[in-house]
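wait is this the right file?? whatever heres the structure
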């Protein structure tokens, strides 16, 4: 597929987003930017949350990872469902009870201002790195098939993408994102379905039944029963549950849209609907992965289980080099949806958390004009930081990006789990200094634990030659360490 066609598809898609951004943002005030004037429609938010939670990582890396980890990712998806239930019936009632704009305002009310600032900073670091990883993968694909043939360097192409996103988000904020993210979800799902059908109808696979295609891929194992493996079912289930709680329920980027819904009941319906949609779409992702493997086996790119290209390039290579036409354009538009949704929400929500939690501009008696200028400055600053983070990923990342993004969550979200668990389930109140110390030490200790793949060697049993591989359960270990660190020596609060 030619770079001109790819550019035309992305340009048309962006102009559509720009038009939506203009319509929804032309009369947006601060309340519209931060909470959409509390008028967001719950099912529209649920649809939009799909593109935000999936992003380019799910669109490209999850199907490709089937060739490496079979269907084990579905174990994590099952954990997500449990996490969504906790968010709907434990966290959302808490947020609506306190009428929060930033969810970290709860930490100030429950503990102290230092806890609020610390929680917000943990979120900013976590979400900035996670979103950079998501956008990085999509940017790499666009660079390979669009910008590189035209001689445009990677830093410039990423700067152009982020600059375009700034144009339609800097004014409307959440009010705009509720609509643009819903549109992006439709394009993302459409791109998946069209690509899947096109592969099944191609000359390479059309002579096989759907079941024969799936069987020929030979990567259909869902449950890993080896307790010592990092992909063991229990580890993925628990890890998926707490990754969902942390990356959705304790994440301002995801919760800000929920808080823009009129009532708690509608917000809970939104969360349950999101859970069902995420399961269904991930089934499509994994099915697509199996079909891609069968396709590449027929092409000779995968032979005897060994691929000549990286797993993250399976989807773009098939769609743009071998299928083209409608399938290629569907991939381009789906990738554009994944690309823009990876960054537009995060710029708004990082701005919100820093504005309310870190600098607390709302409490400084500034004029509306001064507040708006600071909001725009923060929004633009995070665009630059996102650019720098993506360039860092380009220099140092290795392996499937989905593993990198979820792996980072293991270490960065633990303190938030510990802080909120202490606030919800105990009457303890740690000092501000302890909150800072624990929020630094717990992730470092979890990282150290995760490096000991050979736990029995650590205990001195090298001769048994039995290994234990840490998986996504590290996020729970991190949360427990944070909770215990905050609990020990803290005082019992009165009047809670």
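ok assuming it is, sequence goes like this
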């Amino acid at each position: 597929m030619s770079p001109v066609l790819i550019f035309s598809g992305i340009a048309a898609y962006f102009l559509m987003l720009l038009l939506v951004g203009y319509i929804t943002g032309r009369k947006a005030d601060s309340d519209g930017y931060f909470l959409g004037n509390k008028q967001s429609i719950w099912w529209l938010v649920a649809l939009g949350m799909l593109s935000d939670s999936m992003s380019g990582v799910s669109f490209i890396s999850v199907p490709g990872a089937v060739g490496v980890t079979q269907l084990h990712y579905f174990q994590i998806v099952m954990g997500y469902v449990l996490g969504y239930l906790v968010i709907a019936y434990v966290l959302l009632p808490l947020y609506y009870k306190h009428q929060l704009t930033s969810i970290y305002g709860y930490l100030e009310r429950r503990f102290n201002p230092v806890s609020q600032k610390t929680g917000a900073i943990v979120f900013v670091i976590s979400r900035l790195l996670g979103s950079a990883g998501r956008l990085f993968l999509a940017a790499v694909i666009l660079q390979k098939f669009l910008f590189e043939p035209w001689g445009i360097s990677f830093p410039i192409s990423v700067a152009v993408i982020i600059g375009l996103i700034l144009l339609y988000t800097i004014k409307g904020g959440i009010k705009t994102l509720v609509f643009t993210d819903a549109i992006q979800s439709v394009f993302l799902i459409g791109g998946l379905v069209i690509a899947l059908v096109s592969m099944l109808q191609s000359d390479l696979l059309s002579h096989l039944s759907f079941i024969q295609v799936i069987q020929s891929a030979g990567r259909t194992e869902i449950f890993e029963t080896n307790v010592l493996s990092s992909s063991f079912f229990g580890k993925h289930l628990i890890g998926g549950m707490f990754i969902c709680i942390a990356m959705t329920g304790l994440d301002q980027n995801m919760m800000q849209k929920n808080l823009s819904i009129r009532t708690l009941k509608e917000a809970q319906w939104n969360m349950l609907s999101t859970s069902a949609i995420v399961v269904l779409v991930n089934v499509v992702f994994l099915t697509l992965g199996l079909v891609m493997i069968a396709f590449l086996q027929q092409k000779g790119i995968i032979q005897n289980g060994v691929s000549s290209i990286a797993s993250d390039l399976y989807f773009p290579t098939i769609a743009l080099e071998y299928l083209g036409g409608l399938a290629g354009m569907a991939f381009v538009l789906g990738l554009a949806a994944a690309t823009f949704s990876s960054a537009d929400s995060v710029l708004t929500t990082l701005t919100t958390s820093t504005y309310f939690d870190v600098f607390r501009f709302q409490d400084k008696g500034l004029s509306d004009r001064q507040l708006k200028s600071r909001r725009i400055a923060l929004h633009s600053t995070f665009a630059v930081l996102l650019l720098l983070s993506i360039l860092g990923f380009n220099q140092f990342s290795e392996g499937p990006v989905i593993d990198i993004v979820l792996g980072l969550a293991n270490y960065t979200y633990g303190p938030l789990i510990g802080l909120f668990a202490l606030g919800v389930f105990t009457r303890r109140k740690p000092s501000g200094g302890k909150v800072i110390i624990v929020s630094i030490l717990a992730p470092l200790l979890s990282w150290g634990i995760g490096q000991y793949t050979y736990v029995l060697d650590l205990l001195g049993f090298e001769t048994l030659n039995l290994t234990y591989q840490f998986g996504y359960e590290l996020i729970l270990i991190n949360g427990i360490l944070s909770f215990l660190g905050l609990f020990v020596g803290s005082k019992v609060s009165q009047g809670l």
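The chain has one domain: 3-402. so i think its the right one actually
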